[in-house]
Each structure stands twice: as structure tokens, then as C-alpha cells.
Amino acid sequence: MKHANDLFAQAVSQLIEIGEKARKEREARERKAGDRETIRVSRKEKRAHVRLTEREKVQLTFNL
Question: Using one digit for the tens of pLDDT, what is the confidence trace for 28-41?
Fold first, then answer.
């Protein structure tokens, strides 16, 4: 039969492991969300740049 001190120490270490695992998973989800946001912003900037160049082309044709 295990002593209560041993059981308590084992339970605490298991809780710490569970907490660490949850923290790592949460951080991984946040990183993925950050990556998606970065990709979304870069796509938006690229579209804005394309729109700008199209406007410049139209302006150039009107100026001729």
C-alpha cells in the first residue's frame, strides 16, 4: 500500500504534466492562428498592390 505522501507527489506531477501539455497545445494553436493572420495580411497586401498597378495602367492609357 502506498503512503499518502507518495500518492500526493504522484498526483501533483501528473497535474503538472497535464498543465504543460495543455499550455503547449494552446501555444501551438496561437502560432497557427498567427501564421494564418500573417498569410491573410500578405494576400491582402498583394491584392492591393495588383489593384494599384491596374489603376496605374488605366491612368496611363487615359494620359496618352
Answer: 888 887 777 777 77
pTM of the model: 0.49
- Cα–Cα distance between 7 and 5 in angstroms, integer? 5
Give the Cα separation of 39 and 28 in Å (integer): 17
Q: What is the DSSP string of the chain?
A: ---HHHHHHHHHHHHHHHHHHHHHHHHHHHHHHHHHHHHHHHHHHHHHHHHHHHHHHHHHHHH-
